[in-house]
Write a structure and sequence with these properties.
Largest sheet: none
Order of helices and strands: HHHHHHHHHH
Number of strands: 0
Low-confidence stretches: 197-203
Helix content: over 70%
Radius of gyration: 20 Å
Structural class: mainly alpha
Shape: globular
Distance between the termini: 60 Å
Number of helices: 10
């Protein structure tokens, strides 16, 4: 494929994902019509099915892109204390529950349409890598000497954030429950920075 055709294909795929996100957020998965999506994208139905097998496949592409964008926020950026920046970024991920359409898309419809295994596998490896890198960078004395501990903590932190988001998404009072959920996440994050305890003699 020539470079020009590759660029056109990339633009078409991006336009479809942009349009699909808009329509899925507006109408929900079940009510979203592929006719509306291609109209918003300004492409043909043939173009849609060239890039995606069906509406479910397109929905999966949208979910994956939103997840990748969320992963980028885990990088603390230019801050005085990188660990505080990382903690703030992790807690900010809970804000998704404040936006009802996004909450419905990621935390309710995505598991229902794709299944939890597919939703998690779509982003977990890359998210885990980001968290592991952050742990090793922000607390090198603790984590560079113990890759197993880093991997275990990264898995636990990612799972904790996912469960916290789900808890708030299904809560009758997400605003009222947020302080308690945030406090527990902060406690877990604090353990990730603690030094590794020395092993007992004879072990």
């Amino acid at each position: 494929m020539s470079p020009g055709r590759v660029r056109n294909a990339t633009r078409t795929r991006t336009a479809l994902l942009d349009a699909a996100l808009e329509v899925f957020l507006r109408d929900g998965y079940s009510a979203a019509a592929t006719e509306d999506i291609v109209a918003v994208a300004g492409v043909t139905r043939g173009a849609l099915y060239h890039h995606f097998a069906n509406k479910r496949d397109l929905f999966r592409g949208v979910v994956e892109r939103v997840q990748r964008e969320a992963e980028q926020t885990l990088h603390p950026g230019e801050v005085d204390d990188p660990w505080d920046g990382f903690t703030t970024a992790v807690l900010a991920s809970l804000d998704v529950v404040n936006d009802q359409p996004t909450r419905r898309l990621l935390l309710i419809e995505a598991p229902a349409v794709l299944g939890w295994t597919e939703v998690r596998e779509a982003h977990r490896h890359s998210t885990l890598r980001v968290v592991e890198e952050m742990l090793a960078t922000l607390a090198p004395d603790t984590h560079r000497s113990s890759s197993t501990r880093t991997s275990v903590l990264a898995h636990l932190l990612v799972a904790a954030v996912e469960e916290a988001m789900l808890y708030l998404a299904h809560s009758d009072d997400p605003v009222g429950d947020r302080p308690a959920v945030q406090a527990e996440l902060l406690r877990l994050l604090g353990t990730a920075r603690e030094p590794v305890a020395a092993e007992a003699p004879g072990r």
